[in-house]
Amino acid sequence: MADDDYIDSEFFNTSSDSSEGHKHFLEFHKFFLPCVYVVVFICGLLGNSLVLVIYLFYQKLKSLTDVFLMNLPLADLVFVCTLPFWAYASIHEWVFGKVMCKTLLGIYTLNFYTSMLILTCITMDRFIAVVQATKAYNQQAKRMAWGKAICLLIWVISLLVSLPQIIYGKVCYLDKLICGYHDEDISTVVLATQMTLGFFLPLLAMIVCYSVIIKTLLHARGFQKHKSLKIIFLVVAVFLLTQTPFNLVKLIRSTRWEHYTMTSFHYAIIITEAIAYLRACLNPVLYAFVGLKFRRNFWKLMKDIGCLPYLGVLGQWKSSEDASKTYSASHNVEATNMFQL
């Protein structure tokens, strides 16, 4: 975990800030991150579990998009399941042992970067579906096979990137027992690799692919075009707002040692880290619930478990869907493909 990595003995011994500032920071750290972990855990558990249930029992894996959207909540779900352990350790100390420390560090990192790489694949898949719609449709079976192979490769790559956390993860005593990873000899290489996979690669894919998609949609005509554009801007905005601050802080921290001794900088790390974890809650909404097919299956699930008076609610939703389809002309394949992903 990042927060365990930056709380070290040098911070407490060499900081130029007052001891009162240290005390306030430790109190803030003790209660702020656990609260964030619990909120992300609950929301991420509910949202991603719901997506998995719908894909397993209602929607099935009929397209490449479905394959990616099945792996994304799976990665996010395992990621959020590690958060209760870190929440407890932040409040008290690490009591789960060395093996559990290495395992949870590995699982945490594995699923974090699996999720980010899958986001990259979803972006590229949307690019092909919109810009090369006819070709994508004709090669659907081949794309499905490639997609499954790519998902397997993503998990393998993420496991390799996670190995330093697994190998060098350890429990040490710094005022209390903590589980963390820190190795000066390879930390720079690991940071560069993880930032490339976890931030710059998804960002580059979004900039390039969504720029072309927007250009294509602007030349299309139809009811769905405007909704598709809104979804694109929302996806990019959420990614930038949640991931940029934390990665920027990590880059700054890696360049100059004196940042380790600034209490204000440690506040920045904690807050931006908490913001970055929100993506695990937002991914189900951004990448699943925007699809018409997924929402239809969601209402079926709600009907089956008796959570709504489905005749009225489902009827209203059906009317909305039918109206949407009526306004969508058959020749506007680019716009409808984008919106229904």
Automatic annotation (TrEMBL):
<dbReference type="GO" id="GO:0015026">
    <property type="term" value="F:coreceptor activity"/>
</dbReference>
<keyword id="KW-1003">Cell membrane</keyword>
<dbReference type="GO" id="GO:0007204">
    <property type="term" value="P:positive regulation of cytosolic calcium ion concentration"/>
</dbReference>
<dbReference type="InterPro" id="IPR000355">
    <property type="entry name" value="Chemokine_rcpt"/>
</dbReference>
<dbReference type="GO" id="GO:0006954">
    <property type="term" value="P:inflammatory response"/>
</dbReference>
<dbReference type="InterPro" id="IPR002235">
    <property type="entry name" value="Chemokine_CXCR6"/>
</dbReference>
<feature type="transmembrane region" description="Helical">
    <location>
        <begin position="145"/>
        <end position="167"/>
    </location>
</feature>
<dbReference type="GO" id="GO:0060326">
    <property type="term" value="P:cell chemotaxis"/>
</dbReference>
<keyword id="KW-0297">G-protein coupled receptor</keyword>
<comment type="similarity">
    <text>Belongs to the G-protein coupled receptor 1 family.</text>
</comment>
<keyword id="KW-0807">Transducer</keyword>
<feature type="domain" description="G-protein coupled receptors family 1 profile">
    <location>
        <begin position="47"/>
        <end position="287"/>
    </location>
</feature>
<feature type="transmembrane region" description="Helical">
    <location>
        <begin position="266"/>
        <end position="292"/>
    </location>
</feature>
<keyword id="KW-0675">Receptor</keyword>
<keyword id="KW-1015">Disulfide bond</keyword>
<feature type="transmembrane region" description="Helical">
    <location>
        <begin position="70"/>
        <end position="91"/>
    </location>
</feature>
<dbReference type="InterPro" id="IPR017452">
    <property type="entry name" value="GPCR_Rhodpsn_7TM"/>
</dbReference>
<feature type="transmembrane region" description="Helical">
    <location>
        <begin position="197"/>
        <end position="217"/>
    </location>
</feature>
<dbReference type="GO" id="GO:0009897">
    <property type="term" value="C:external side of plasma membrane"/>
</dbReference>
<keyword id="KW-1133">Transmembrane helix</keyword>
<keyword id="KW-0472">Membrane</keyword>
<keyword id="KW-0812">Transmembrane</keyword>
<dbReference type="InterPro" id="IPR050119">
    <property type="entry name" value="CCR1-9-like"/>
</dbReference>
<feature type="transmembrane region" description="Helical">
    <location>
        <begin position="103"/>
        <end position="124"/>
    </location>
</feature>
<dbReference type="GO" id="GO:0016494">
    <property type="term" value="F:C-X-C chemokine receptor activity"/>
</dbReference>
<dbReference type="InterPro" id="IPR000276">
    <property type="entry name" value="GPCR_Rhodpsn"/>
</dbReference>
<dbReference type="GO" id="GO:0006955">
    <property type="term" value="P:immune response"/>
</dbReference>
<dbReference type="GO" id="GO:0019722">
    <property type="term" value="P:calcium-mediated signaling"/>
</dbReference>
<dbReference type="Pfam" id="PF00001">
    <property type="entry name" value="7tm_1"/>
</dbReference>
<dbReference type="GO" id="GO:0019957">
    <property type="term" value="F:C-C chemokine binding"/>
</dbReference>
<feature type="transmembrane region" description="Helical">
    <location>
        <begin position="31"/>
        <end position="58"/>
    </location>
</feature>
<protein>
    <recommendedName>
        <fullName>C-X-C chemokine receptor type 6</fullName>
    </recommendedName>
</protein>
<keyword id="KW-0325">Glycoprotein</keyword>
<dbReference type="GO" id="GO:0016493">
    <property type="term" value="F:C-C chemokine receptor activity"/>
</dbReference>
<feature type="transmembrane region" description="Helical">
    <location>
        <begin position="229"/>
        <end position="246"/>
    </location>
</feature>
